[in-house]
Structures are given as C-alpha cells and as structure tokens.
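Continuing the series of single-chain predictions for the mutant panel. This is the parent chain; the variants come on the following pages.
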Amino acid sequence: SGVSTGGVASSANASDADMAEGNRPSTLIICGRCDAFACGQLVALSEHRAVVSARLWNVDPFARGVGSSLRANRAERLKDRLQGMYESLAVGGNIDDDNAENNGEGGYRVNLATSTILGHYATRMRDQKTYVVKNP
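Parent structure:
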C-alpha cells in the first residue's frame, strides 16, 4: 500500500525511504537562476505564506505590542554590547577580554553568531573611527 504524494501514487515496490507519510505540507522550489527576479518571488512567497498563516490562526501579523517591545529591548542590549566591544578595542584591548562566555549586561546571553557579527562591526568602527568613545 503506497502513499500518494502530491497526487502521484507511489509504486508498489518503493522502499519506506521513498515514501512520504503524508499530512505534512511542504514547499519545493526549483529555480533555474538565482537572480533578482527569482529572489523577489521568494520574498513574495514568504510574505504571502506569513499573511495566509496569520489569517488561518486569526492573528494580526502587523500588531504592535509585546513583540515590538521585546525587539526594542533586545536591540538596546545589543547596542550596549557593541559599544562595550568598541570601547574595549579603542583602548587596545581584545573583544574577548570583555567576557569570555558572551554574556552581556545583566547576564544576557549572546550566541556565537551574534557575538561574531558584533565583533566584526566593532572592529570596522574602530578602523574607520566612525564612533566616539564616551568619556566616563
């Protein structure tokens, strides 16, 4: 007994690895070229999926409330972390001297990818002297 995937019945001699269990929606996207037009279509598809999902779940995807305040708090903490990294570099220190476990103010944890990106920006800011260290 084969499972039908996408309206096409699977063959009787197909292995279990070749069959899908069903009732699991997925989207397979195949594009010949990854140019600006194709990328725009991917963005449009993503936005469409978000709006349709929000409609099905009866959620307002454009509501400003808890999510926006959480983003603002996180952005403020990341900005403080970036300033700390920059100030450490400006006085000749090392970014990792700040805190080896990537903890920000108040024990706020920053993952390795975020810490790496912030370190990159702090180094560029120092090299370009685009930011002034605040006097204590």
